[in-house]
Design goal:
The protein has one domain. Helices cover 70% and strands 0% of the residues. Helix 1 packs antiparallel against helix 2. The protein is rod-shaped and about 120 Å long.
Length: 196
């Protein structure tokens, strides 16, 4: 059987990769935190700012529509003489403008109410979608960084021709338990060659 040879040109590249992975982990964690914060701020803004704002705006505009109707009614009923009727063009334009503004505010108020109910659902979907990435940032990347650092140390020792203890390369969860009684091999009461 032919032995495969590994040709390591630079351990520095592995160290650079580990440093890049640390920066990546930090950037991803910051991005997830910033995204969560931004979504929460948006929900609070819609619920506590936009819905009350448009409700108050509708009340003011409703008052403006009533005033515009009143002005139109006064102008239509005011006669300078029996045969002449005053022009109500300006009053009609003012009423149409006030009604359009009220309809726009009503549409925006309804949209704000709808979004104040829908945004929490969308936020829950967003969090479900980012849970895998958050788990990777919290668990997988640190484990990969630690493994890469262990490999770097082992390669440095190999280069210096120091003996390598392979058990130190295994992650903690994979290290064999020394108290494990299911191990096979010669025991203290067995004879040579492991036989009793």
């Amino acid at each position: 059987m032919e032995r495969e040879q590994v040709r390591v040109l630079s351990v520095d590249v592995l160290e650079s990769l580990a440093a890049a992975m640390v920066r990546c982990k930090e950037d991803l964690a910051a991005a997830l935190l910033e995204g969560d914060s931004e979504v929460e701020r948006t929900i609070v803004w819609v619920e506590r700012d936009r819905v009350p704002h448009w409700r108050k705006r509708m009340q003011r505009l409703d008052h403006d529509v009533l005033e515009a109707r009143s002005a139109l009614f006064r102008k239509e009923n005011h006669r300078v003489s029996r045969d002449s009727k005053p022009s109500t063009v300006d009053e009609r334009k003012a009423l149409a403008k006030a009604q359009a503004a009220l309809e726009d505010a009503d549409r925006r108020w309804k949209a704000s109410q709808r979004w104040s109910q829908e945004l929490p659902r969308h936020n829950a979907e967003y969090k479900r979608g980012t849970n895998l990435l958050a788990a990777m940032v919290d668990r997988e990347l640190p484990a990969a960084i630690a493994a890469l650092r262990r490999m770097t140390i082992a390669l440095e020792r190999y280069r210096r021709e120091e003996p390598i203890d392979l058990r130190t390369l295994l992650p903690d969860r994979e290290k064999p338990d020394p108290s494990d009684s299911t191990r096979r091999g010669p025991s203290a009461d067995s004879g040579p060659g492991g036989e009793s």
